[in-house]
C-alpha cells in the first residue's frame, strides 16, 4: 500500500498551503527590506549627481524612496505578521500530518489495543490544535468559505486495517525514508546557501577593507563606496542569519542520523509490541520543534 500527503485530510492541505504562502510573504518582505537599505546608500557613494530643475537631486530622491519603502514594508509586516502565521501554520500542518500517520499505522496512543481509536484521535487532534490557537493560530475551519472535510480519510482507515507487516512497510517507505531524504536534501541546500553567502560577504568586505587601509595611510582620498559595500555585506550577513544555514546543517544531519538508526531498528529487531512507541519516537524526531531545538543548541 502507498500512503502519500494526498491521503491526508483537507485540514492538513489547507494549513500547509497557508504556511507556504506566509513563508513566501515573510521571506520576500525581508529580502526587499535588505535590498532597499542597500539601495538607499548608493546615491551617497556615487561621484556624480543628476539635477532636475536646478535643485532637485534625482539620485538622492531614489535613496529617499528606498528608505521610505523600508518604513512602509516594516509597518505592513508588523500588521500582517506573516512570519508568525508561517511558523504557526507550519507547526499545525506538521502536527496534523504526524498524528494522522500515528493513527494510520497504530502508533501510540492509537495502538491496536486502544479503545475507540477514532474518538481518541479526534480528542488528541483538537487538544493539540487548541494549544496553537492559544498563541494565535487561526483555524481554517473557522472560515465560512472553507469546505471542511473529515479528519480521518478513507486511506487512513484502509492503512489502519492492514496487517502489521503492511503497516510497517508503508510507514518505513512512505514516511521514515521520505523524511530522511528530505533532511538530506535540506542539508545540501543549507551547505550551498552557507557557502554562497559566506563567499559573498567576503567578496564585499575585502574591497571595503582595502579601501579603508588606503585611507588610513593617506594613500587615497575618502571613498564613500565603503559605506555601500559595508551595507551590502551587512545585508548578506542578516540574510544568512535569517535563513540559519549553518545551524540547520548540523540539526538536519543529526535528525537524519537518528532516523537512520530508527529505520535499522524497525527493519530488524522491532516487534509489533514495540511498534507503537517506536512510531511515536520517530514522529517526535521529525517534529519542527525538535529540529528547532537542535538548531538553537547545537554548537
What does the secondary structure layout of this molecule look like, with pairings?
Layout: H1 10-45, E1 51-52, E2 56-57, H2 58-80, H3 82-104, H4 117-134, H5 154-160, H6 164-216, H7 225-243, H8 245-267, H9 275-285, H10 288-297
Helix pairs in contact: 1-2, 1-3, 1-7, 3-4, 3-5, 6-7, 6-8, 8-9, 8-10
Report on this structure.
This protein has 299 residues and is an all-alpha fold. It has two domains: 1-162, no CATH class; 172-299. The chain is built from ten helices and two strands. The longest helix has 53 residues, at 164-216. The chain is elongated and about 85 Å long. The model has no long low-confidence stretch (mean pLDDT 90).
Descriptive tags:
299 residues; mainly alpha; two-stranded antiparallel sheet; elongated
Amino acid at each position: 500500500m502507498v500512503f502519500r500527503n494526498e491521503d491526508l485530510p483537507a485540514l492538513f492541505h489547507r494549513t500547509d498551503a497557508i504556511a507556504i504562502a506566509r513563508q513566501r510573504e515573510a521571506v520576500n518582505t525581508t529580502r526587499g527590506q535588505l535590498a532597499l537599505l542597500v539601495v538607499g546608500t548608493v546615491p551617497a557613494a556615487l561621484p556624480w549627481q543628476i539635477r532636475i530643475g536646478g535643485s532637485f537631486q534625482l539620485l538622492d530622491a531614489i535613496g529617499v524612496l528606498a528608505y521610505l519603502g523600508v518604513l512602509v514594508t516594516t509597518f505592513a509586516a508588523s500588521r500582517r505578521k506573516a512570519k508568525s502565521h508561517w511558523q504557526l501554520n507550519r507547526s499545525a500542518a506538521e502536527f496534523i500530518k504526524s498524528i494522522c500517520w500515528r493513527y494510520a499505522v497504530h502508533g501510540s496512543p492509537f495502538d491496536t489495543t486502544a479503545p475507540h481509536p477514532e474518538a481518541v484521535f479526534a480528542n488528541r487532534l483538537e487538544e493539540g490544535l487548541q494549544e496553537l490557537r492559544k498563541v494565535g493560530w487561526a483555524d481554517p475551519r473557522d472560515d465560512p468559505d472553507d469546505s471542511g472535510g473529515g479528519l480521518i480519510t478513507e486511506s487512513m482507515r484502509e492503512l489502519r486495517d492492514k496487517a502489521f507487516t503492511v503497516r510497517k512497510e508503508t510507514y518505513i517507505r512512505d514516511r521514515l525514508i521520505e523524511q530522511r531524504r528530505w533532511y538530506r536534501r535540506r542539508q545540501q541546500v543549507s551547505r550551498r546557501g552557507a557557502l554562497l553567502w559566506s563567499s559573498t560577504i567576503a567578496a564585499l568586505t575585502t574591497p571595503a577593507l582595502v579601501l579603508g587601509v588606503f585611507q588610513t595611510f593617506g594613500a587615497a582620498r575618502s571613498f564613500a563606496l565603503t559605506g555601500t559595500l559595508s551595507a551590502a555585506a551587512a545585508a548578506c550577513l542578516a540574510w544568512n542569519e535569517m535563513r540559519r544555514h549553518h545551524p540547520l546543517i548540523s540539526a538536519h544531519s543529526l535528525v537524519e542520523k537518528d532516523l537512520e538508526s530508527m529505520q535499522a531498528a524497525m527493519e530488524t529487531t522491532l516487534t509489533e509490541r514495540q511498534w507503537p512507541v517506536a512510531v511515536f519516537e520517530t514522529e517526535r524526531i521529525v517534529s519542527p520543534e525538535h529540529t528547532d531545538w537542535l538548531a538553537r543548541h547545537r554548537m
